[in-house]
Fold these 2 entries.
Entry 1:
Amino acid sequence: MSTKRPSQLDHARRHFLGLAAATGARVAAMGIAASTILPSFSAQAHQGGNEQGENQGGNEQGGNSRHPCFLRGTSILTPTGEVRVEDIQIGDLVGTAHGRAMPVKWIGRTLYKRSGRSWNSDVVPIRISRHALDDRTPHRDLYLSPGHALFIDGDLILAKFLVNGISIVPAPPADGEAIEYFHVMLESHEVILAEGAPAESYLPGGGNHEHFTNFAEFARLYPDSLAMKPFAPVVGFESGRDHLKALLRLGMHPFEPVSDPYEPVHRAYERIAARAEQQVVAAG
């Protein structure tokens, strides 16, 4: 009987656990009884604001996970150095991945307050640890909303699909009461540098500005629809069901070559997870 090499086993284990971590919340939302094979994540985040423009983060609500934002305190590169995202104003210049500074057209803000005993997975920031992506990136811990995309290998990959439990993990707020996100819109969809890491700017469309606390400001500034071409393909699992299928498929046949439409996500995840494990071994 043939046996699998340890490297193959490690590859399948990392891949399976990564898919499980990112899939848990979606499974709960779909009502699929998978508690025996998936870690328990909280349910979807509520995205509808109340009269004060605050969103509730209790785990009883459902929400829109494609709501990309930077956590308060995140440093964004500008021509004069790094500036915290909450201090950036409309008209300020920010640096982009292609080296050209561009003026800010709008800053979206969202404040979440916890309404239950725990936070929802769509609200809890994802921490991209210092040097998680490579030897220089990010240069400090970076906190993004789960639906915010990083530019990796020519694609935009949502942070939640890169969670590996070591260098990229959900990170609930220390005070446990509020989470505030900010997003930066330029004249086109771009990649900007947050804590040195390439992350997307805001891509308006389909009324998604209404998820922000200051949506009325956006509507006043831009009464006509804005059309922006995505900077790069956004890759990932189109739905929780697609993600669950990929997880089950890998769990049942971890070593068989299969056609994988989500290869960019898996490839990035594998490389980053392997790097994290190597760092743990080196530190030990």
Entry 2:
Amino acid sequence: MTLEIITSDSLAPFRHGFFTRRGGASSGIFSGLNCGPGSSDQAEIVAINRARVAQAMEVPAAALATVHQVHSPTVLTVTAPPTDPRPKADAMVTATPGIAIAVLTADCQPVLLADAEAGVIGAAHAGWRGARDGVLEATVNAMLALGASRDGLKAVIGPSISQRAYEVGPEFFEDFIAEDHTNTRFFAGGNGDRMHFDLPAYGLHRLREAGVQAEWTRHCTYSDPERFYSYRRTTHAGEADYGRLISAIRL
């Protein structure tokens, strides 16, 4: 099956893509393009999937750069693909041609960024914790340090869990409101004391407050099992594990 790659005109002319699960070699609960070496999928199958992504990005498999994601605000500036063991970080930036920087997600926000004029790109994994702790702003700042400008920067949030599928408890709500009372705008009422959190809207807000033009592709990972992996959907289904989507960009 052919790979399915979601792109955005905002990131042109750079080769990039938010890859769906279609076109991969994995089977069973991982069926499709599982690119997560941290999953319990067969390592050789994950390697095949990642090689297919590298080919689509027109780089050698070794030039598809990922990190050990830990829901942090840590950003790595790369001039060569990290080698194993991969450093712990949740974003990468580069101005070096020939490297495809990529993040893995399964409900969290994959964010690809670019300044076409400056020739600087970035990729960030932004769940609620990383976004709240500043990974998006840290990625922007790291790109500025490489010569990007706020006016030239554009960011695209890829497939993520949507508000209607993201139910949270009162403690989650209270923590966000304690940080900034205006964060109430990202919550809607649910059943009982439950709320629904709008992760993509929160990500867009943080990016725009940082002076970056930003958009969301408006794909919900939870609601489309044929195309996307979802940690939350897997949890609700009682499955043992889940695949990871990959999103990549290169100069």
